[in-house]
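new request in #modeling-help
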Amino acid sequence: MVGLPFAGDGLVHAGALGLGILAALLFYAFEKRRRGLSDPRLWPIAGFAVAFGAIGSRVLTWDFSRQVSLAEWWGNGDRSILAGLVGAWLGVHLGKRLTGYGESTGDLLAPAVALALVIGRVGCLLTELPGTPTGGAWGISLTPGQAEMLGGLPGVGLHPSFAYEIVFHAAAFALMWRFRDRLPGPGDLFICYVTFYALFRFGVEFVRGNEVLWLGMSRPQWFLLAILPLLFWRMLRVFGKPLRPKVEGRVA
Amino acid sequence: MSKDNPPPQKEEEPPEPGLGPMGFGILVGTTALYAFYLLGPSAFGRLQSEAGSGPSSMRFLTGPSAFIPVAGYLAIAIILAVWPPTSRWGAGLLIGLGIFTLLGGGICVGALAQMGA
């Protein structure tokens, strides 16, 4: 078993998250250039995604039933990647509406988001409660002090659920890079990424150790159950069309 | 078409502006937000103490009103981002707000909001 080296260390968590955002912005710039996209509205749209993603990750998890004010929640409440993604999606739509940009930006944003999550989740892996007990001698083990701080069990192997997620996003990034110019329509890459992430996340929640809300499922799982039908419907539209042949050289 | 005709000139795209204004926007925005929420309460408290009005600091910005500066900043950033001549600045300010909110800024705002409690 391995230990948790930086349990509860906000600086390590923030450092990884900051590096993730930086990597995503650099990749966004690179991909924008590679696709030959020079529309000046694309950077403000990225700005809307980052700002509203950050706000969404805090505000959209606000649990009224806990009798906590928004101010307290903002400072000490839960944060969620799923809520952040919803916030970023709303931000992109707001940005596109306000700037009058009509093209799809999903294909440009999806690999950048995956890259940000590969790096950002390293911060979670090193600092947060890893997951539920593995039932075996492997996994991440907490000291009694760490277990008390994070609300886990000491001395048993816990699922490294954030490592699973890092592997998922790294694989997703590689696949998106491989098929970046081959899906039939604009925005399809984003739809595929979000759908597969939703499915993966639904599964990994069973070993994440988040609070069970109802019927053995956590809050993120109920949220995912609600949006998965919509995502499947969009996926049918993607795979109902033939793939584009691979084109060498620059693709607009 | 005659062979003497020159080849058609490629329509030149205007050069993309550098990342300078955006980078500057990120730097200025993030620094301003951290400075306001980290240094503001202590600086204002010191001023009030010197003026003899008690140890309270920035009580007018406690509770939900702690969000007013963030909301104002967001509104300004959106206006700048949407207006083409300042869109890079606005994009930088928006990214700066995102960085501030994700990297510990929530604690700053939350702590300020709870000071009056």
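bot summary: Chain A touches chain B through 35 residues (CB under 8 Å).
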